[in-house]
Write a structure and sequence with these properties.
The protein is an alpha/beta fold. It contains 8 helices and 10 strands. The strands form 2 sheets. Strands 3-2-1-4-5-6-10-9 form an 8-stranded mixed beta sheet, sandwiched between helices. A two-stranded parallel ribbon has the order 7-8. The longest helix has 27 residues. It comes from Somion occarium. This is NAD-dependent epimerase/dehydratase domain-containing protein.
């Protein structure tokens, strides 16, 4: 038996999976996993999303494999978990799936976020993976002063927030799933090309180049945003995977379990297969990740 786990990253090629892959199998130095498989809807040859200059070199590593798969199709998911001949099963799963477009309607969010995570989560539970890490982006209505802690009941923001949050309740309700949730602040860092923080950094750099004070709609300190570097997200995902792999879901719930409170339309939820009932108490280990300001 290898002392290093085999890992799969699902989704997130346009968000954080490239940084996670670089952390798990760096260009220089010892890899943290024996084998890494990355699964997403995009192609990489030719690329149909931004890859940056580093990620294509990581894909050339002998222990790294990329698969283009439509994860909206439930019948396509089981094969993603099948290891290569002579290789040990995949024991770590990093779920970075989900639609990050704020303009999607309920039906598209259900199909692209909720259903995809459900297909992957159910198969991961069936395979008895040791760690299933779900990355949750900050699609919430956060308070203006100070960060929210893990125990606070924060309201999802809009359609995207509603279904990303509902996805957490669904995953928390899957039996035998060694789930741990990592809820992040706004991400920034190398090769990150989306989100408000990137725009602010670009605008600030422009004002700096012009040697002029940066002007905004609000005074400095108004509506502050908590951020987190993408490399910290990658490190945290691997850390929580090691943590839950060592103790299991039951003990993880007792140590860091938090209730994922219902925030949805009960009538709309009735037509969604696999959704946790509104009255169900859904609990899962959950950690916030941000840079303290």
């Amino acid at each position: 038996m290898s002392t290093k786990p085999n890992a799969i990253i699902f989704g997130g090629l346009n968000t954080c999976s490239r940084a996670l892959a670089a952390f798990l199998v760096p260009l220089e130095g010892e890899p943290l996993v024996a084998n890494l498989r990355i699964v997403d809807k995009y192609t990489v040859q030719p690329p149909t999303t931004y890859l940056g200059s580093e990620f294509p070199r990581i894909l050339e590593k002998p222990n790294v494999e990329y698969r283009q798969v439509n994860l909206c199709l439930p019948e396509a998911v089981p094969a993603c978990f099948d290891p290569a001949e002579g290789q040990e099963p995949y024991s770590y799963v990093f779920d970075l799936t989900g639609d990050i477009n704020w303009e999607r309607n309920h039906q598209i969010q259900i199909a692209n976020t909720f259903n995809v995570a459900r297909h992957v989560g159910l198969e991961a539970a069936r395979r008895r993976v040791k760690a299933y890490v779900r990355l949750q982006h900050p699609f919430y209505e956060c308070k203006e002063k100070g960060p929210a802690d893990e125990k606070e009941d924060i309201k999802p923001d809009g359609t995207i927030g509603t279904w990303w949050h509902e996805t957490l309740r669904m995953l928390a309700s899957i039996e035998d799933l060694n789930l741990v949730i990592l809820r992040t602040a706004m991400v920034y860092g190398p090769y990150v090309d989306g989100g408000n923080i990137i725009r602010l950094i670009a605008v600030a750099a422009t004002y700096g180049y012009l040697h002029k004070p940066m002007k905004g709609l609000w005074s400095p300190g108004k509506y502050p945003s908590h951020t987190v570097h993408i490399e910290d997200i990658a490190g945290a995902m691997f850390a929580v995977a090691n943590w839950i792999a060592g103790i299991g879901r039951k003990e993880a719930d007792s140590v860091a379990g938090e209730e994922i409170v219902f925030h949805n339309d009960k009538a709309q939820l009735e037509a969604v297969e696999g959704a946790a009932p509104p009255e169900k108490r859904c609990v899962a280990p959950l950690f916030n990740l941000m840079t303290r300001m």
